[in-house]
Amino acid sequence: MSAQQAGASPSNHSLAFRVMRLCRPSFQAEDGVLRLDLFDLLAGEDLFDGPLVSSTVMDQVLRRQPFSGPGEGGGGDDFSFRDRFQLRNPNDAMALSGFLILPQSFGAIYLGETFCSYISINNSSSFEARDVVIKAEIQTERQRILLLDTSKAPVESIRSGGRYDFIVEHDVKELGPHTLVCTALYNDGDGDRKYLPQFFKFVVANPLSVRTKVRAVKGITFLEACLENHTKCNLYMDQVEFEPSENWTVSVLKPDGYIANNSTQTSSMIFRPPRLIKAGGGIFNYLYQLKQLAEDSGQMKVGGSNVLGKLQITWRTNLGEPGRLQTQQIVGMPIVQKDIDLQVVEVPSSIIIERPFLVRLKLTNQSERSAGPFEVTISQGSSSLPKAVVVNGIQKLVLQPLEAFNSSEFNLNMIATRLGVQKISGITICDTREEKYYDPLPDVEIFVDSE
């Protein structure tokens, strides 16, 4: 960790701070050592496929003993320079010695981790330091967080050559430069009151990037979240859950087609294995299906919210270091609130050419005043060709007025004149009292079959 001293130089002070980051150790790998089994040089992978392999050779291979010919001693248990590359144990192939090493540098700190530091204040002078008031705080571009303050209970004394140790923790919630500020106010050997500040700087990086896409298909909203690992170690995702807002429900879409509802937790979901996202750019995609809660007809809201919710992400590194992130609120497609809304309720699953069928529609008044009466028609549109689906019978349908926040359903008698995939388009509604036309109903695709 880089340290910068403010005020007087360390030589003018009896005390000095030393800071070490507390984190999990790592495995010690034997770089540059390739171990092998000498038996692999004498026989191929298809050795055991042959029926003439002797039982002696089989036993020696399975026991991992060096092969010895007739008249030769075992001699394989004595380690010497010439057999330093031999596999003495199956675990040797991992190139791990079994030792754990402490971090040799401060290392990288990522957003969502817990910053834990071991701080020692040493007295390197020949005098005793008395009434030591110690403070430690984290400074960011936005705020200052106090981690330790001994003002109410100062350290009585730190003898010559002695030290006072303590541990501080801080949940990292901001990106960018951070400064650990350690200060000490004490009486030196001459009885003078001295102030020692020391600054330790580090930078917090982003471990993950979360990219989201929102799509709406026939009243159902789909949210895709792509997580990319920016760290130098593998991340094991314990939890990637979407917390919907009050007016939404969510289900997780699995690759095998299984839909897991967040409201039901089974033992398989609670004890599910973590999802691995590899170091240096590994990605994984999550897909969620969101549905808006049905509202009571008497309590319809004029303005809808397009805030879907937020993601809760927890993970662990190779040796179990935890991390946690929470995204900002994810916004869905803009909600355009209409005073008069026309929607399709039901379309027959089977439609025969030149045979009448009924389309059930719903007209809703989402304003705070009554509206209507209304007139339903089908416009020709810009095309000069006749429509493939037209109204069967009376071309204009008159509907009664609607009170505020009320709705009514009605049927439209239609007939198809062409085979194949066709569109019901141009259904328009007009307020005859105000002579106001509203946006036409979005096109509805149907399949017209022959008898």
Automatic annotation (TrEMBL):
**Coiled-coil boundaries:** none
Q: Which residues form the Trafficking protein particle complex subunit 13 middle domain?
A: 208-330
Residue ranges occupied by any Trafficking protein particle complex subunit 13 C-terminal domain in the UniProt entry: 348-439
Q: Give the Trafficking protein particle complex subunit 13 N-terminal domain ranges.
A: 90-204
Family to which this protein belongs:
Belongs to the TRAPPC13 family.
GO cellular component terms listed in the entry, alphabetical order: TRAPPIII protein complex
Q: Which InterPro entries match?
A: TRAPPC13, TRAPPC13_C, TRAPPC13_M, TRAPPC13_N
Tell me where on the tree of life, at the top rank, the source sits. Answer: Eukaryota
Q: What is this protein called?
A: Trafficking protein particle complex subunit 13
